[in-house]
Design goal:
A hairpin with a 4-residue loop joins strand 13 and strand 14. The protein is of the alpha/beta class. Helix 1 runs parallel beside helix 9. It contains 14 helices and 22 strands. It folds into three domains: 213 residues, FAD/NAD(P)-binding domain, CATH 3.50.50.60; 111 residues, FAD/NAD(P)-binding domain (3-Layer(bba) Sandwich), CATH 3.50.50; 114 residues, Enolase-like, domain 1 (2-Layer Sandwich), CATH 3.30.390.30.
Length: 466
């Protein structure tokens, strides 16, 4: 007799394990299936967490090398890459074990193995030793995340042709790296290796980096990265990549049809991710997919099958861990009869480079396309006391507000701690606040957050310090 659950989540990433915990809190007998062997999904194991660890460590290395200009004399600074990687791995291990503890604490059954549908209520699980188990459930949530997209005809070997996973495990600092794609992941990984001494070239098909981001922020971001030594080759299409013994050659064509080849030690392909639905045996449950092989759901995350739901990267929307988490909680509450909801207008996006880039809500380009009248408030970190005091003044805060109502419609930041500062604006937007509400809120001095207040004041052309 197979074990029966009230809810089963396939996938133990940020959306899946959060959903499992919330369902257990709400009294459901719940199981969470994960094939990786450790919880946390791509984000915790080979994504957000290890990349942020390396971003921080590489920035610390860069800072120490340049301390003498600030009056702190140090001896010769050396990089021990293997130690740095061990530090990164330690952070991942601690956090994955922490998630496992949380499942146990909340009485969620954690099943290690690959889950696939046998029917719309049955899941077959195969473990690492090929032993099989079948369980049944009243409700099933698919939370299997996404995987990197390779270029046509070019496969990842994670030694020379890298996905983001391979870029986190390079064993020695490459002399030259080609990053194909100017999005979040490619720029984060490129900046890590650039600070550690690699010559980094970004090859991008479009005429701008970070597609979908506010253009003014995107342009400023690219200027700063260029100053840091990263080289950009815009409007270049990659035709093919040829591996050789000690690296690879990337063959490209620019917008005018000119050919250009790039010799490199490693190539990081970062052109996007796709829904991870392969291997789920979707047909057995008769679940509908869209044209991008994502799972079709309604506003309550329900598929065409009444008892099967999907969240996170396998459905439409931004592929972000925090989006998946919010959906995990919402779908759990919907399953038990409550009213779970996600406000997609207030989901922030952050690039954890130095400086950080953060965005929430509408961009100027979107507001123009929608014929919305808006006002802009901007404030540079160059005029922020805290930023000046620690010599970290690159970037600015930009707030967009409705011309008639003054309601905050979006905000875009580039600068120190932008990923933390964006939360204030997220709360303001969640409560329908105006720019004046932010401007009239007392902010501690001296803090980076004063730049947010000044940008809000600037919407009404009354900034004090610029």
């Amino acid at each position: 007799m197979s074990e029966k659950f009230q809810a089963v989540i396939i996938g133990g990433g940020p959306g899946g394990y959060v959903c499992a915990i919330r369902l257990a809190q709400l009294g459901f007998k719940t199981a969470c299936i994960e094939s990786r062997g450790s919880l946390g999904g791509t984000c915790l194991n080979v994504g957000c967490i290890p990349s942020k660890s390396l971003l921080n460590l590489s920035e610390e290395f860069h800072k120490v090398k340049n301390l003498s200009s600030k009056g702190i004399e140090v001896g010769e600074v050396k990089l021990n890459l293997s130690k740095m990687m061990k530090s990164k791995d330690k952070a991942v291990t601690i956090l994955t074990k922490g998630v496992e503890f949380l499942l146990k604490k909340n009485k969620v059954t954690y099943i290690k193995g690959h889950g696939s549908f046998k029917s719309k209520n049955e899941i077959n699980i195969k473990d690492a030793d090929n032993k099989e188990l079948t369980i049944t459930s009243d409700n099933i949530v698919i939370a299997t995340g996404s995987v990197p997209v390779p270029l046509p005809g070019i496969n990842f070997d994670e030694k020379i042709i890298l996905s983001s996973t391979g870029a986190l495990k390079i064993e020695q600092v490459p002399k030259k790296m080609i990053v194909v794609g100017g999005g979040y992941i490619g720029l984060e990984m490129g900046s890590v290796w650039s600070r550690l001494g690699t010559e980094v070239h970004v090859v991008e098909f479009l005429d701008h980096i970070t597609p979908g981001m506010d253009k003014e922020i995107s342009e400023e971001f690219m200027k700063i990265l260029k100053k840091q030594g990263i080289k950009f080759h815009m409007q270049h299409k990659v035709e093919k990549i040829k591996k050789k013994n000690d690296g690879a050659i990337v063959f490209t064509t620019d917008k005018d049809g000119n050919k250009k080849d790039f010799d490199s030690d490693v190539v990081l392909i970062s052109v996007g991710r796709k829904a991870n639905t392969d291997g789920l045996n979707i047909k057995a449950a008769d679940i509908e997919l869209d044209e991008k092989q994502r799972i079709k759901t309604d506003e309550n995350f329900k598929t065409n099958q009444d008892n099967i739901y999907a969240i996170g990267d396998v459905i439409t929307g931004p592929m972000l861990a925090h989006k998946a988490e919010d959906e995990g909680i919402a779908v759990a509450e919907n399953i038990v009869g409550q009213s779970g909801h996600v406000n997609y207008d207030t989901i922030p996006g952050v690039i954890y480079t130095t400086p950080e880039v953060a965005t929430i809500g509408k961009t100027e380009e979107q507001l123009k396309d929608e014929n919305v009248d808006y006002k802009i408030g901007k404030f540079s970190f160059m005029a922020n006391s805290r930023a000046k005091a620690i010599d970290d003044t690159e970037g600015f805060v930009k707030i967009l507000a409705d011309t008639k109502t003054d309601k905050v419609l979006g905000a875009h930041l580039i600068g120190p701690h932008a990923g933390e500062l964006i939360a204030e604006i997220g709360i303001a937007m969640e409560f329908g606040a105006s720019s004046e509400d932010i401007a009239r809120t007392c902010h501690a001095h001296p803090t980076f957050s004063e730049a947010v207040k000044e940008a809000a004041l600037s919407v009404d052309k009354r900034a004090i310090h610029s």
